[in-house]
Amino acid sequence: xxxLFLLIPLSVVLVFAVLGGLWWAIYTGQFEEVEEEGERILHxx
Length: 45
Description:
This protein is an all-alpha fold. Helix content is 76%, strand content 0%.
């Protein structure tokens, strides 16, 4: 039971870290041209 006092706050911190990373990636434009990057390898000479 004592381990829950450690695991629950750590889980909440992990969720906020993942959401913060996702927000940062969207905010900085990491997902702007996803299709073009996938097609770029097909059009290289």
